[in-house]
Input
Amino acid sequence: MLVYPSAIDLSTAQLRHLSREFAARRREIGTRWRRLTAGRQALLTLAHLRCGDTYAQLAAGFGIGIATVYRYIREAIEVLAAQAPTLDEAIATARTKAYVILDGTMLAIDRIAADRPYFSGKKRHHGMNVQVLADPLGRLLWASPALPGATHDLTAAREHGIIDALAEAGLKCWADKAYQGAGHLVRVPFKGRKLKRWQCRHNTTHAKIWCVGEQAIATLKRWRLLRKLRCSTNRIAGIVRDVLALHLTSA
Output
């Protein structure tokens, strides 16, 4: 296999932060020696999450076995997932904002044996449903655990407790038509083809506010691993939390 130098479009602050976390983890469990230092393990993790490099590519690039790469990545997912903010913490942060933007996105996955729950009729492919909260400037505040792609956005928001959390906090939220019936605090556009003029103006104004939330989804999908997931669906929630934790450390 040919090996060549590459680059990752991330700051050194994220690398240093991740290196410290891995070093602390090794001290906690009493690790004496490993093939890679904490800094190299951090670089390997970022290459996997940001660039979507496979285990085989990482093994060749770092001069270790595929099984070792697998163990390093599994450990990284556990360490980072514990740092991601909870929904309650995100709502507490959002209280300082005028409102939040709620949207859902589909993370594409490989087709699996029990594929029916994971097939999205809207997107026409298999995937996982992730709910995203953004601030009025489109900055990512929180991303939910992943649910099968056939799950409707409103159902997913209710299952994660987003609707109840927004109502309890009295926080206004802008969302798209998929969230019709979520409550008076969740502002959605009017549905239908034959709308009155004032309804059309409302939808135009709503779209100008809500569309900024697409930036938060774009922030997630800048991590190339999330563009096409080839791992077990049970691990995707942890990967999303990893990406969220890494993004917020540099925000």
Remarks:
- Residues 12-29 form the longest helix (18 residues).
- The CA atoms of residues 2 and 60 lie 8 Å apart.
- The mean pLDDT is 90.
- The chain has two domains: 12-81, 87-232.
